[in-house]
């Protein structure tokens, strides 16, 4: 009961600071953030929100995002939704002013959206919206898979391990269906029709079908095929809605949607998507086996900027494809090193600014989350506003990524069975080709290298004389650039980590 009261208190503290129930148009959450659609952005009190104890930061994107952290956001969101419903019911007359509020905030909202409304970023955001809801299941099944593998290797609980294997594998066997469902929903079609078409890909009976001179195999094309099939189904459905008479719509539209999309999927998309998926796996293996250290250095070093630009979302289907093919993604442990560089950089900032208790307090409160892979508080509260420490954090991530990449090049693959967590939270999801002990040791070594490199780079090169003089005497919080520039960081995540959190 105490926990429920705490979550409700957090929701109650947030609601008036975002303009009240009448100002909230939509509510959703990802791995770490409460995402709100608002009628009038000017009614939000950013500074007061940041002062709420449970709030780690705010991010301005296509929605207004309040960073609460993993676990907390899933508990606060239902309480917030209930408070909004209660507020709308008790303020019925005020609800009539929603259009007026929307009109007042339209110009500001359009200005904020324009920064991140390029076609490419909008496409990536849609991709993230498809895959981010799947992350909790990927994490849960991934941890069970790791536990099952450990028990099998030890020869323990042999009567239980088959059940654990079924739990771990069931979702992955049908992930194409969930991708199809979410894709149709995201692109404006009927979700169940998208799932129905995508289900063709994993149906065992496709093994009796010949296409392009070869027999299809269940699961061929994977999530990429499911995504393509569902998008096609949406377009076929919309075409049918325009041309099929209303009296026949309920019968003809679903039939033609599944029939046309299904035939194209079987005799085209499954083959093409299968080839693309195989190429992705082959390229990832080649990249890390031939240029592992260099590739890891670049991937680990540039991941934080990718997050800031929202481009990391393009990696989500790649991670999922690798997990489908190989059982783990070799990219995520390397990208997770960006978070290690961030932690090391924050530790150096703490020591370099002994007189600035405001920044040091922020670091103390955000460091545990950073160690567990939730990087937003340290990024938006410390390194990014200061400038140089953000760059030196990237240097730490580069060295950590290079360390893990080097071992991949030497034949020790280090991967993750799910996407989402990073930092210490990734340990239960680690897998590789040379045993769990070796995999854990390499990943831990990469974290250590990232911490040390980020610390050293920041301590010696992270501050100019002017910057050090300015912030080593100030007791005011670091001026956040989030509201001003609105850096995007998904979903997830990330995040990561959202997916591929930092």
UniProtKB/TrEMBL annotation:
Residues 482-502 are annotated as: Disordered. It is a multi-pass membrane protein. The chain crosses the membrane at residues 130-151, 163-181, 188-207, 219-236, 248-273, 293-316, 328-351, 440-461. The active site is at 30 (phosphocysteine intermediate). It comes from Streptomyces argenteolus. It is found in: Cell membrane. Keywords: Cell membrane, Kinase, Membrane, Phosphotransferase system, Sugar transport, Transferase, Transmembrane, Transmembrane helix, Transport. Residues 482-496 have a biased composition (Low complexity). Residues 8-90 form the PTS EIIB type-1 domain. Residues 125-477 form the PTS EIIC type-1 domain. This is PTS transporter subunit EIIC. Its main location: membrane. The lineage of its organism: Bacteria, Bacillati, Actinomycetota, Actinomycetes, Kitasatosporales.
